[in-house]
């Protein structure tokens, strides 16, 4: 499929936009662009894109009245199954990359996790498993348990950096990794707010080893709901999102990649992006020698964020919970937080895919997905201590 960039910035100057969305600047940019072209809201949607998306994954935060609608509570018998599966896998004396449904057997819980996995792809797109007694295990045993349970939700694990790591520790690393060249360029490793975005891959799992002293609420939002409002009010921004964007690789080779952020594939609306690739984050500024984004793209970034925020749901993420979300159909964010000596927020992330239930991957994303899920069992690393994600050449991501 061939794409063309339809809007250019004559002065080749990056718009006035930063990682943290500024609502006043967003409204000013919208007013300016509508004054320049009042016909934008009357634009035609791109060919093949629906005027309205329906289905259970299209929801608003206000639609949910109780966390019991998405929380599954593990029983003592199920926790015993998990302990038995841990013993079974350890007895095999296999590399952890071989953790699977077969090597981590859960006789009764497996079917339940299978139905919850179907909920990720065909239902609301998220659930929380409560609660793993994380303090009862060594960090290594907990990694086996986490990967083992998750293998009943997603059959494939994705590598999260160039070294084959399939676990990523999400916590404040600004002090322990202050020596990193170029600083930390991802809000995930700070106490800062993470704005709405998606991760690569199909499914995201997060287990909470510890929660913050204050803040750090996990927020999710339906991409379909965001899409429907834009399709109804600003179809021109749907067009902008569905065309190619310049994604900064922050010193990689090549210096940037090009692809759309929005896809309509087999009846599914998929938004796939992280804002920092267009604005930079912290000391990791957007590369000055690559083409800037356009004013239309800057407005689209803010529109997606503020609509996702408007319709979001905050999850009461507790110690020992595992949160699973469909990263193809949902956007997610995190509030800023504060740690103290007794409470240091610490999550561990897995990227998963359920090969039997998976949505078709849009063609421009297929090379990324292929790299993500091509890691062999022997190549999979399970770091039990926090580290900065690295590219294959060792540079930080």
Automatic annotation (TrEMBL):
InterPro entries linked: AlphaKG_dependent_hydroxylases, TauD-like_sf, TauD/TfdA-like
One MF annotation (Gene Ontology) recorded for this entry: oxidoreductase activity
Signal sequence, renumbered to the chain: none
Entry keyword annotation includes Transport: no
Record-linked SUPFAM superfamilies: Clavaminate synthase-like
Gene3D superfamilies: Clavaminate synthase-like
Domain TauD/TfdA-like: 99-351
Keywords: Oxidoreductase
Protein name: TauD/TfdA-like domain-containing protein
Organism: Lentinula aciculospora
Record lineage: Eukaryota, Fungi, Dikarya, Basidiomycota, Agaricomycotina
């Amino acid at each position: 499929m061939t794409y063309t960039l339809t809007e250019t910035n004559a002065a080749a100057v990056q718009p006035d936009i930063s990682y943290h969305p500024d609502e006043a600047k967003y409204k000013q940019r919208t007013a300016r662009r509508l004054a320049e072209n009042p016909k934008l809201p009357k634009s035609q949607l791109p060919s093949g894109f629906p005027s309205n998306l329906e289905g259970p994954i299209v929801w608003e935060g206000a639609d949910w009245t109780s966390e019991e609608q998405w929380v599954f509570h593990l029983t003592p018998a199920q926790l015993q199954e998990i302990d038995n599966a841990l013993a079974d896998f350890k007895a095999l004396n296999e590399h952890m990359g071989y953790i699977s449904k077969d090597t981590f057997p859960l006789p009764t819980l497996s079917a339940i996790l299978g139905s919850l996995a179907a909920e990720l792809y065909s239902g609301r797109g998220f659930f929380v498993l409560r609660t793993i007694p994380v303090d009862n295990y060594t960090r290594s045993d907990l990694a086996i348990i986490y990967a083992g349970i998750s293998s009943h939700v997603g059959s494939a694990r994705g590598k999260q950096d160039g070294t084959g790591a399939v676990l990523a520790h999400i916590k404040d690393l600004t002090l322990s990794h202050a020596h990193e060249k170029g600083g930390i360029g991802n809000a995930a490793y700070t106490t800062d707010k993470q704005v709405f975005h998606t991760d690569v891959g199909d499914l995201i799992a997060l287990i909470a080893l510890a929660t913050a002293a204050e803040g750090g609420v996990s927020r999710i939002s339906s991409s379909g709901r965001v899409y429907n409002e834009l399709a109804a009010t600003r179809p021109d921004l749907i067009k902008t999102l569905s065309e190619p964007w310049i994604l900064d690789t922050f010193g990689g080779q090549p210096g940037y990649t090009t692809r759309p952020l929005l896809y309509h594939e087999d009846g599914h609306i998929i938004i796939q992006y992280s804002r920092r690739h267009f604005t930079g984050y912290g000391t990791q500024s957007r590369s000055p020698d690559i083409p800037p984004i356009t004013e239309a793209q800057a407005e689209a970034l803010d529109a997606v964020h503020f609509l996702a925020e408007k319709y979001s749901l905050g999850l009461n993420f507790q110690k020992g919970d595992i949160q699973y979300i469909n990263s193809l159909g949902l956007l997610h964010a995190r509030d800023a937080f504060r740690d103290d000596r007794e409470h240091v927020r610490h999550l561990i992330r897995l990227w998963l895919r359920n090969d039997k239930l998976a949505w078709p991957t849009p063609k421009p994303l297929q090379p990324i997905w292929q790299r993500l899920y091509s890691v062999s069992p022997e190549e999979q690393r399970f770091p039990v201590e926090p580290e900065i994600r690295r590219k294959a050449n060792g540079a930080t991501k």
